[in-house]
Automatic annotation (TrEMBL):
This is Zinc knuckle CX2CX4HX4C domain-containing protein. InterPro entries: At4g02000-like, Zn_knuckle_CX2CX4HX4C. It comes from the Eukaryota. Residues 7-55 form the Zinc knuckle CX2CX4HX4C domain. Residues 90-120 are annotated as: Disordered. It comes from Dipteronia dyeriana. Signal peptide: none annotated. Residues 96-112 have a biased composition (Basic and acidic residues).
């Protein structure tokens, strides 16, 4: 699913959302990926600078020491190009990531044209 959002760049990026999808009380956690995301800090999650310029010394030190990071390149969505009515994916991920993306593109091909334009 794709949605357009406004981001407060003074706060860290959100990594996931909790959604209530139906009338039941079930809540689903959905991981977020961002398209057209400018430079952001993998230590603190704020947009506008990289990890070396991070003002949060504790987060920067933990990230540079290789501890588990809350933010990273996995938050970037692959770039979609429309080529002759079809989607073409550009990614630098592993072959497993590319296979997963190709499965998604096959599902989009099965979708009605109005469905693709709506971003489903």
């Amino acid at each position: 699913m794709r949605v357009k959002v406004q981001i407060d760049i003074t706060k860290p990026l959100k990594r996931w959302l909790r959604l209530k999808l139906d009338k039941s009380d079930d809540i689903v956690a959905v991981g977020l990926k961002y398209e057209r995301l400018p430079e952001f800090c993998y230590a603190c999650g704020k947009i506008g600078y990289g990890i070396k310029e991070c003002l949060d010394k504790e987060a920067r030190t933990e990230a540079l020491e290789g501890k588990i990071m809350k933010f990273g390149s996995w938050m970037r969505a692959p770039i979609l190009d429309r080529v002759k009515g079809r989607y073409q994916y550009h990614t630098s991920g592993s072959s497993t990531d590319r296979e997963r993306l190709m499965e998604g593109s096959r599902e989009e091909e099965k979708c009605e044209p109005s469905c693709q334009e709506a971003g489903s």
